[in-house]
């Protein structure tokens, strides 16, 4: 299989593409609220605003990209009879959920060992799940299957319309925070920085398009498990780093093998990726649940841990946005999070 | 101490009083979103809409009543220098939170054995906590202390303005569901029933005022621990039932000793109280957390367990509203909830 090993040429995507995605998603996805915690802000000495996409349909932001892509295909009269995908979990549910809305069959290849709650939910939304021993194998078989007539691939992040869909989470947060009333000439940006978890880079790419377009002074920073730092390595070295095997981390949404050329090209315009230890992941997952009163999966804690690192380097109070990716946790993970007294 | 043993005469409170409370609370409390779960609805065969007051400031609906009462006092030029209260937890935090907003000192008497997370949070909002061995003692001392010059009592439920404040949660839910666009002549009410947990009856009283005024066909049903069924006994017998000792139940918000004359008088116009076993409490707390992706404390599960009982008696699909009271849980309780595989 051919594989590009360079970032894509200038990304042709911009704010207008994300706005078009937002129009497609209007009334379909939840406009999730913004949350904050006065005690947490007091403790950190900064103002943190959270976009809890765990409250989104299927419990994760992923429906934004999946639905937008199918809607975009439908606009072009190119809706397939069967949509094929591969995923470690949240994207699988999103594809199943979106495909049902378009009356399209969904087949999702998943690696064995995905969170049980995510596999079951994917089936509950009506998709056929095909388990494969290896993630790379699941990915390769999905791409083969998608080549059949009447089929189309809906990849978890390597698609412009997936990226634009994911960007709508940050667009909503900026709109609801009043970015348009402030205008680009405000003394300070609405948020000094936006933090997101990084797996394949779809959420961070969409976030970068939106945040940088609306105010170039806004830093966009990703959080990635130190044990799964393919994106950080790629950006630092300028060479696409790809794992042979999915790395082991509590953040199951970050067990992706590599960035794609598309997400790589966009992330080069962002403000870097912070490495997060597993102990910080666990600590922040608990802290977020306690402070915000919402379920939060460990992948989401990557944003908070990255923010903690970044904020510690600033010379004064900052106001920042954190996109929390999802809330699909197994009971085992919940017990691990709440084990400490 | 004199104690009325009859329900209050015709309650002088109505929808306009709750609307006045809503105006005082506008921009101060969170307008919490409405949540639902398609998988849960599919499983139950009914449409359930949730008002998750765990996302409210201090993690519970109680700030509505506490802030409204202080605002009402302030309007009358009767804001005390020191506000005194007693509580098993969530009201304590609410008093502390509201008092801080009015620049008023707060002293809260709590029984020993309150949830640690609730005691610490009360202190964090700036209140002085005085622990007393018994709940009845905490209550009596608070009433004594409040008699001093410059002091005023802000009781957890036995105050008209507390009741009206609590009613704003349901008012918001009905407004956001479009009750005004439908009007009172709609073929069916917006919600066939509204379910709430019952401790001292403040939330259920406010809910009854609102729901019955906007559409008398809406059933208002409470859920109370079977092990702490003072409200159910009072309504069934027509005699105020009062515990000597706080009953033992996982639902710490329902460890109240009795209804008050005020809440008793209003609850007589509602549609009864369902008794909930401790095992159902535990099961529903977990189910709500899994389905809605928000933290939910066991007291909130009383509403869901009551709804389950009521829905099982209906002859067809119903659309119902459940007010989830709060999300302040100790780590021990979280572990108990998630212990089962």
Description:
The structure is a homodimer of 341-residue chains. The first copy, chain A, is of the alpha/beta class and 341 residues long. Chain A has two domains: 15-61 and 159-337, Rossmann fold, CATH 3.40.50; 62-153, Rossmann fold (3-Layer(aba) Sandwich). Chain A has 14 helices and nine strands. Chain A has helices spanning 15-25, 38-44, 62-75, 90-101, 116-124, 135-146, 160-176, 179-182, 202-214, 230-237, 261-267, 278-292, 298-312, 331-337, and strands at residues 47-52, 82-86, 105-111, 128-132, 151-153, 193-197, 219-225, 273-276, 319-324. In chain A, the strands form two sheets. In chain A, strands 1-9-6-7-8 form a five-stranded parallel beta sheet, sandwiched between helices. Chain A has a four-stranded parallel beta sheet with strand order 4-3-2-5, with helices on both faces. In chain A, helix 5 (116-124) links the parallel strand 3 (105-111) and strand 4 (128-132). In chain A, helix 12 crosses helix 13 (298-312). Chains A and B meet through helix 14 of A and helix 14 of B.
Which characteristics define this entry?
homodimer, 341 residues, alpha/beta, Rossmann fold, 4-stranded parallel beta sheet, 14 helices, 44% helix
């Amino acid at each position: 299989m051919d594989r590009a090993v360079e970032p894509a040429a200038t990304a042709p995507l911009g704010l207008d593409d994300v706005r078009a995605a937002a129009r497609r998603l209007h009334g379909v996805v939840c406009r999730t609220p913004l949350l904050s915690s006065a005690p947490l802000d007091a403790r950190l000495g900064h103002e943190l605003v959270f976009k809890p996409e765990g409250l989104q349909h299927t419990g994760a932001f992923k429906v934004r990209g999946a639905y937008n892509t199918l809607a975009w295909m439908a606009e072009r009269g190119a809706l397939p009879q069967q949509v094929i995908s591969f995923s470690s979990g949240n994207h699988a549910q999103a594809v199943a959920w979106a495909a049902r809305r378009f009356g399209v069959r969904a087949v999702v290849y998943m690696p064995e060992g995905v969170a049980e709650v995510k596999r079951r939910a994917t089936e509950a939304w009506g998709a056929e799940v095909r388990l494969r021993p290896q993630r790379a194998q699941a990915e390769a078989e999905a791409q083969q299957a998608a080549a059949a007539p009447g089929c189309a691939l809906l990849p978890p992040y390597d698609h412009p319309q997936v990226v634009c869909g994911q960007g709508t989470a940050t667009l909503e947060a900026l709109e609801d925070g009043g970015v348009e009333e402030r205008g680009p000439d405000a003394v300070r940006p609405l948020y000094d920085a936006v933090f997101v978890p990084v797996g394949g880079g779809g959420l961070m790419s969409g976030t970068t398009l939106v945040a940088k377009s609306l105010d170039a002074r806004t830093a966009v920073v990703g959080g990635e498990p130190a044990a799964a730092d393919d994106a950080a390595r790629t950006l630092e070295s300028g060479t696409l780093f790809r794992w042979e095997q999915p790395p082991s981390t509590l953040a199951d949404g970050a067990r992706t093998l590599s960035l794609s050329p598309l997400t790589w090209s966009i992330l080069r315009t962002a403000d870097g990726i912070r490495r997060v230890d597993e102990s910080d992941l666990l600590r922040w997952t608990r802290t977020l649940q306690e402070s915000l009163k919402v379920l939060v999966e460990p992948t989401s804690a990557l944003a908070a841990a990255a923010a903690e690192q970044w904020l510690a380097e600033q010379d004064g109070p900052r106001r920042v946005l954190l996109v929390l990716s999802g809330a699909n946790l197994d009971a085992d993970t919940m017990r691990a999070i709440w084990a400490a007294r």
